[in-house]
Amino acid sequence: MDAEVCLLAQIDSAAYCMNTHASNTDFPDIIRTRYGQIAIPRESDDLIGRFLRHYGEWSFLEVQFVASFLPKGARVLDIGAYIGTFSLGLAQVANLEFVAMVEANAASAKLLIQNAETGLKCSHEVVSALVVDSSSANISEGWAIAGNIGSTSFINRPPDAISVEPVRERIEIQSLVERFAPLQLVKLDVEGMEKQLLSSYPSLLRNNDTLLWLECNESSASLELCQLLLDTGRPVTYFAWPSHNESNYHGAVQKIFPFAHEAGLLVGAAPRTLTSEQQQADCIVRRIFNLEDLREAMWSTPRWAPPEWDQLTRSQLAAVASNVMLGKRRETFLDDTRQLEDNGGPPVSLRQLQRENAVKGARVAYLEHLLADHAQQQYEAIQVISNRLTEAEESHNRERTELFEANQEISNRLMKAEESHN
Questions:
Q1: Model pTM?
Q2: 349 pairs with which residues across the strands?
Q3: Among 112, 125, 267, 259, which residue's Cα sits nearest to residue 195?
Q4: I need a labelling partner for 175 at 20 to 30 A (CA). Which of 71, 261, 360, 396 fits?
Q5: What confidence tens digit (pLDDT) does each residue in 19-48 have?
Q6: Under the phi-then-psi rule, with left for phi > 0, alpha for psi from -120 to 50, and beta for the rest, what region is 403?
């Protein structure tokens, strides 16, 4: 889960959260959701718990997207399952034969076991273990953002993080996958460890029979992960969905985080046309061919916005966005009236210079775009010519071979005729 969507009210202190988290999972709240009656932490400000109470679901649009790529009777491995909402939802939407759920947060694993027993109808197994590779086996502590237990990471320590106790068991990803193989889907939501784990098991990356679904946060680590995925030659698809699902289970209208989106990368399948429900929900899907594609997709994906923006019209949003791009702030708007001399000519306002610089920047970007297109067209034209020359050379070589073989045949016949005559 993204740190950007954790701008909710902080608890009284991180120390309080540390001391009460374990006891609150020993005595959880049981609530009614899309997945049935499930157990959630008693912390009133836990991000996913807050969504489950308000909407009756968490990231169900994600579940529907992933489910659309699964065959009947699929076997699924859910690494980083937290309290199980992904697998619980997937089992409702898709026809699953088996699902294995893995959780490393000792407190969350208790809730996961309880929710799996009461909510999963398909065959399943819960593994309370920290998934590692050979270089991470000595991990002894994890961290989570206060108010977001699902953000538990065993590799990155966010600012103002609280300590999280991991389970005792360690298991390498290769052993885990081989234990439950064959698998049609492996989901990895391990808060920054995705690249590290996948790099240690390249055969999983290149297994065309297994789809991979990976968290994609707005960070440079996602670009590094994407490069690893692209190097496999398998199709990579970016999908982003809003945290507010208008068709949520409780029919809640009030948005907890307007505009906020989550995102993931699907490896092994090209994108499909969005359904009408996904389009209405403002989901985003992109085929990723290179890192610039992913950079552009993430740039165009809203992760957070002030709640008051949800009440603005399209024109008002455009006005705010353009002002921000010009470096303006509402607090100082129209106050920067100092004048600048432009080469001894008439005074020019700072705002006018900003507008001119923005226009120049846009023109440069447009010219760079045209240049890139022209270069691509030239490259493609050269490729076409090269291919035609290669084909012509191959055709010429075939004709020479055929002519040589024909001459050899004639020569052989003449020799036989001469021998027969003699």
A1: 0.73
A2: 339
A3: 267
A4: 71
A5: 444 445 667 999 999 999 999 998 777 899
A6: alpha
